[in-house]
Design brief:
Layout (H helix, E strand, L loop, with lengths): L15 H23 L6 H9 E5 L5 E5 L2 E9 L10 H11 L5 H5 L11 H15 L13 H4 L5 H22 L3 E6 L35 E2 L14 H19 L7 H27 L15 E3 H9 L7 H27 L5 H20 L9 H8 L9 H8 L2 H14 L9 E2 L6 E9 L4 H18 L12 E6 L5 E7 L25 E6 H9 L1
Parallel strand pairs: 3-4, 4-5, 8-9, 9-11
Antiparallel strand pairs: 1-2, 1-6, 2-3, 7-8, 10-11
Helix pairs in contact: 1-8, 2-10, 8-9, 9-10, 9-11, 11-12, 11-15, 12-15
Pfam families: CTD1 (PF20276)
InterPro entries: ABC-3C_CTD1
Protein name: ABC-three component systems C-terminal domain-containing protein
Length: 548
């Protein structure tokens, strides 16, 4: 029995950077399809029907899929970073071939059974018995395909397996018909994949029995599987981050021209529309996570499940909106665009630093930085995104006050350079994850709030001016409008002296009294009943306190 182990369904959230690229590739595919239909006539009833019927489903059948109602039109696999020879993608390509040809994996079968374990090895033994029963009773053939007579043969299987096998195999047949047998599969990469040097059936690792009759021996296009070297007309399958953003903006401009024929849009306008569309993807992630945490589809057999989609209608609704009014929604988009720019640049800069390094220490440090940044991004920052990123930015710019010139305020709290050089540079060096914005030192004595406050001027007079401006802003925001978290002792800043601890001019907001909580639940600094001052602390000293 040659069953593959990888499920035909998957529900893992990849790294933020990879997901950001994957999400934008999905958006690009949606816009290509919408634009094609719109050019036939946006006022036609068929256009509205098209928008109502078509949608994108992320991270289920594939990295994403385009569906018409419940049927899958195309499946899309996305690889952001990595090598780009055909052989570098053998596992992914083989998995696609197995799925296209209707091979049911071990993993999917096991999802339909509950295995109990009293000692180590029990589950593996039960799984082996199940697989033996499937092959012995000829439910699958030697290639792992469902036998054409499996519905008859299953009647002779032990009754303890029979009903679950029938449900599993029936669901898989239906899914194969909806998703794999008729859909087209596209393989998207940041760089163009090189065509194989030898004929595909001769490549070790490729299931040769599925590719024995290729019309072109170095292409899978006759099986409706396309890589970038196939040069399909529908999509550009090799798009770098820069090319992808350019393609998105071109498609948005083309659609805006059709939807708003008498309006001219600036470059900033187009970027804001792109940001709004990317927000739909973020919202979809939130819905998917709620879907998973709430176990909302656990009552549905595994292979019958679907995940929340983004309908094409929602995408066009965003493009029909006007972002000319500088209201809260407008400024939220501006701030989000600037933060995304900073975050993306931070990841790119870290990669550029080590991409040619052969040092294990450099690579380990890079992996730590990425893991830390993405932990904070996914577990903290994304709680505010996409609709409330201003609130998050005010917490890392707690000294910024709303001035008469509202544009200056929003530009200040979303200035990409300081987000990178002060906040993100500090966050990536923290070794202790807290799951919240504030951090405690190693012995839990003090609490720290990271910020974008910068006292790094080498001119002492200017540094003192920076300190006074920050103190005044904190004082103006103090009280109900304070963006300093309760129980914070130190605001982390970038300063000229690694030992700097500077009074911030505000009192600590203490929520916990020592007599209200057990001693073990209260930080030492919170037990002090007298008024305690909050201080600025240089990021290097703060890292020493937090990391130990």
């Amino acid at each position: 029995m040659t069953l593959i182990t990888k499920s035909v369904l998957h529900d893992a959230t990849p790294s933020w950077n990879g997901y950001n690229y994957q999400g934008k590739i999905g958006l690009y595919v949606c816009l290509v399809n919408i634009l094609k239909e719109a050019q036939a006539g946006i006022d036609l009833p068929s256009f509205d029907v098209f928008l109502d019927e078509h949608h994108i489903e992320y991270e289920w059948i594939e990295d994403f899929a385009i569906k018409k109602n419940e049927n899958y039109l195309s499946l899309h696999q996305v690889k952001h970073k990595g090598e780009n020879k055909f052989n570098d993608h053998l596992e992914a390509i083989s998995t696609i071939l197995y799925r296209k040809n209707g091979v049911l994996s071990d993993t999917d079968i096991f999802k339909y059974f509950k295995f109990t374990s009293k000692k180590k090895g029990d589950v593996a033994a039960e799984q082996t018995k199940l697989k033996t029963a499937i092959t012995t009773h000829r439910l699958v053939d030697d290639s792992g395909l469902l036998d054409s007579n499996w519905k008859v043969n299953v009647q002779s299987v032990d009754v303890k397996y029979r009903d679950n096998i029938i449900t599993c195999f029936s669901d898989f047949e239906l899914l194969s018909h909806k998703a794999f047998s008729t859909s087209i599969t596209y393989f998207h990469t940041a760089d163009k994949v090189e065509a194989p040097l030898v004929n595909i059936p001769q490549i070790p690792g490729i299931p040769s029995h599925f590719v024995s009759n290729l019309s072109e021996p170095k292409s899978l296009s006759c099986q409706q599987i396309f890589l970038s070297f196939d040069n399909p007309k529908t999509y550009n399958l090799a798009l770098s981050d820069e090319m992808l953003n350019s393609e998105l903006e071109k498609k948005i401009v083309n659609l805006l021209t059709l939807l708003h024929p008498d309006t001219t849009f600036s470059e900033l306008d187009v970027k804001l529309y792109k940001t709004a569309l990317c927000a739909l993807i973020d919202q979809n992630i939130v819905r998917r996570h709620q879907h998973i945490r709430g176990k909302r589809d656990n009552h549905i057999p595994y292979l019958q499940r679907t995940k929340p989609s983004i309908y094409f209608k929602e995408i066009v609704q965003q493009l029909k909106r006007s972002y000319r009014d500088q209201d809260d929604a407008y400024w939220n988009l501006v701030c989000r665009e600037n933060f995304e720019k900073a975050y993306r640049e931070q990841l790119d800069e870290l990669y550029e630093d080590i991409k040619n390094s052969t040092s294990d220490d450099d690579i380990e440090k890079y992996e730590h930085y990425i893991a830390r940044l993405e932990f904070v991004r996914i577990n903290i920052i994304d709680n505010y995104f996409p609709s409330d990123c201003v609130s998050f930015l005010q917490q890392i710019y707690p000294h910024a006050t709303r001035s008469i010139n509202i544009r200056e305020f929003y530009e200040e709290i979303s200035e990409p350079q300081k987000i990178k050089s002060v906040f993100l540079d500090f966050i990536q060096d923290v070794s202790k994850s807290s799951g919240k914005l504030t951090l405690e030192c190693k012995n839990d004595t003090f609490e720290f709030q990271p910020s974008c406050i910068d006292f790094s001027s080498i001119n002492e007079r200017r540094k003192n001016i920076q300190i006074d401006i920050a103190r005044k802003g904190l004082a103006d925001n103090y009280g109900n409008q304070s963006f300093i978290h309760p129980n914070v002792d130190y605001i982390v800043v970038s300063s000229t002296d690694a030992k700097d601890v500077i009074p911030a001019g505000i009192e600590k907001i203490t929520e916990v009294e020592s007599y209200e909580q057990p001693t073990s639940a209260v930080k030492k600094s919170d037990k002090i009943t007298q008024k305690k001052q909050v201080s600025f602390m240089d990021c290097r000293k703060a890292l020493g306190e937090i990391n130990g």
